[in-house]
Design a protein that fits this description.
Number of strands: 18
Distance between the termini: 30 Å
Strand content: 25-35%
Structural class: alpha+beta
Shape: globular
Number of helices: 9
Largest sheet: 9 strands, mixed
Order of helices and strands: EHEEHEEEHEEEHEEHEEHHEHEHEEE
Length: about 325
Amino acid sequence: MNDVAPKSARQIRLAITGVLLLDKPAGISSTNALGRAKWLFQAEKGGHTGTLDPFATGLLPLCFGEATKFSRFILDADKTYIATLKLGSRTPTGDTESEPFEDRAISVDGEKIHQTLSKFIGPQNQIPPMHSALKRYGVALYKLARQGIEVEREPRAITIFAINFVSFDGTFLVIETKVSKGTYIRVLAEDIGEALGCGAHLTALRRTATAGYSVDDAATLEAIEALSNQQREQILQPADSLCLALPKIILNKNDELIFCNGGWLSAPQARIAAANESTPNANEYAIYSEGGRFLGVAEIALAHSELRLIPMRLMATGKIF
């Protein structure tokens, strides 16, 4: 598959709004996967919600139209991956993007693997790899690494919520792990290899879940291409699926009119308390009409000694999928 999205100067662009759960193939970047999807949907506007490395596969939520306004609400979401580690071998990039530079003997069994994996669960600091898109002096670290330049990187706080043993054949170890935003699975693989005493690098990575979305509900580019335009629209998730973690506030018709025109509303404690039953201390809210239409996102702010519900992002009127 070429890493280039199809182009058509005469293609009609549609004001489509929704979230596409894409099962990204290996070998293309997230940006090019987005380009292909936009072309297939003839979408005017689109964006992705965090990248997958080109060699990685799996769940890549893509936002079209109005949904792009709310993509940030899943950028910080936890993510679940299936990762394959090749033990006894290390590479400069920690994955298959470079050739191995060290081979070691493997002397581990299932018990040692289980004990080692359990030690990685919990909050910790992780140093980002040089082969990453993080920037220093305005230059991506991977570009510096290609020039043989290594710079100091600040550790970042991450959390490994779970690591489950899947299989081990004597060389390849497969794990399932749920991690916080900003976790580099390549680094985790290298650290696990070091803890096992034989080194390791990542040979396959598949994202299976994030923000309540599952790869089981995702579609491949080939499957999407085989659908009719109407069928493509039907596989889109609604824009408010991006805001499932936010508490809800339902507005009456008068408040809806004010809110949709950008006006603030009084936010009495009773309304806030009702919305916050499941998510105490929330500051942002998903706003709906009495009829269940998603209107946008608002925040609670104190102004002139009064709590106010202030619009932050509003859905535009029009066809919503």
